[in-house]
């Protein structure tokens, strides 16, 4: 099984560029999780006859956020959003930017032996005004996936909008305390590990230089001045089955690149 995750930063734009078609032909994923689709199902038509499509689009802001799962394997069940009781438990309420749980940010697909969960984590914003929301969101998502893994192992992926360690961004000293590299966001990632999840790429790869997102400014991608903010996490009970975690830096079309695992 080949499982991929990619923040496409607008699926219609990636299709216009021909990059998603090229990606599917070259990699042929069995399961593809997309974040920041910025579209509803039917707004992005292309030849994906081999795949079943499951979309979760923003209900409050059209053309914003959104996730999707394309799969060749039929799921047992698909669930959108963080369940209400967990959102309520962690006070995941609307802030000045809106209600994050209404923005199509989460899809969980249950398969025979495991869950695949993908999420587009809210950005903390340049002025860090969404840090409180991030703390509630991170707690709710970790709790949700911890609940799921009491039933079956979980493979969690997506744009988590945080570089966990100094090795996960090119300029850690200059960015310490800024969005994506605050103590609060990094602590939220620590809680995933404490809940029994494994960062499978970091398990197999040491050091820096492994990035998944680059700014559009100053030729950051060409110079590889980037951040690793896109992840695959695996429940400890299934992590030993996860092989060959990779970052596909050559795939263009978005400011993020795909990340993949094999099961």
Task: Describe, in plain words, how this protein is organized in 3D.
The chain is α+β, with helices and mostly antiparallel strands and 263 residues long. The protein has a single domain (2-262), classed as Deoxyribonuclease I, Chain A, CATH 3.60.10. The chain has helices at 11-16, 19-27, 84-89, 131-148, 172-175, 183-194, 200-204, 236-239; strands at 2-7, 31-35, 52-56, 67-71, 77-80, 106-110, 115-120, 154-159, 197-199, 213-214, 226-227, 230-235, 243-247, 259-262. The strands form 3 sheets. It has a 6-stranded mixed β-sheet with strand order 3-4-2-1-14-13. Strands 5-6-7-8-12-9 form a 6-stranded mixed β-sheet. It has a two-stranded antiparallel ribbon with strand order 10-11. Helix 4 (131-148) links the parallel strand 7 (115-120) and strand 8.
Brief description of this entry?
The chain is built from eight helices and 14 strands. With 263 residues, the chain is α+β, with helices and mostly antiparallel strands.
Distance between the termini: 5 Å
CATH fold-level name: Deoxyribonuclease I, Chain A
The assigned structural class equals alpha+beta
CATH H level, superfamily name: Endonuclease/exonuclease/phosphatase
Q: What is the CA-atom radius of gyration, in angstroms?
A: 17 Å
Structural domain count: 1
Biggest sheet: strand arrangement:
3-4-2-1-14-13
Annotation field: number of helices:
8
Helix content: 10-25%
Number of strand segments: 14
Instruction: Note the run of SSEs as H and E.
Output: EHHEEEEHEEHEHHEHEEEHEE
Which class in CATH terms? Alpha Beta
CATH architectural label: 4-Layer Sandwich
């Amino acid at each position: 099984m080949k499982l991929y995750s990619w923040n496409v930063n607008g699926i219609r734009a990636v299709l216009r560029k021909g990059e998603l078609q090229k990606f599917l032909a070259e990699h042929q994923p069995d399961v593809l999780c997309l974040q920041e689709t910025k579209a509803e199902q039917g707004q992005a038509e292309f030849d994906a006859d081999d795949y079943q499509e499951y979309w979760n689009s923003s209900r409050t802001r059209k053309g914003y956020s959104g996730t999707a799962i394309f799969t060749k394997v039929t799921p047992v069940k698909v669930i959108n959003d963080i369940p209400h009781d967990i959102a309520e438990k962690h006070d995941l309420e609307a802030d000045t930017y809106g209600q994050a749980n209404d923005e199509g940010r989460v899809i969980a697909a249950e398969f025979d032996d495991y869950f695949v969960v993908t999420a587009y984590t809210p950005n903390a914003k340049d002025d860090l005004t969404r840090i409180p929301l991030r703390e509630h969101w991170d707690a709710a998502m970790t709790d949700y996936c911890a609940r799921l893994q009491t039933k079956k192992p979980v493979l969690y992926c997506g744009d988590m909008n945080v570089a966990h360690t100094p090795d996960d961004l090119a300029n850690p000293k200059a960015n310490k305390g800024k969005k994506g590299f605050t103590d609060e966001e990094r602590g939220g990632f620590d809680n995933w590990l404490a809940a029994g999840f494994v960062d499978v790429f970091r398990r197999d790869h040491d050091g820096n230089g492994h990035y998944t997102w680059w700014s559009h400014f100053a030729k950051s991608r060409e110079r590889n001045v980037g951040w690793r903010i896109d992840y695959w996490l695996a429940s400890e009970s299934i992590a030993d089955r996860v092989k060959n975690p990779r970052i596909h830096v050559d795939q263009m079309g978005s400011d993020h690149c795909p990340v993949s695992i094999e099961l």
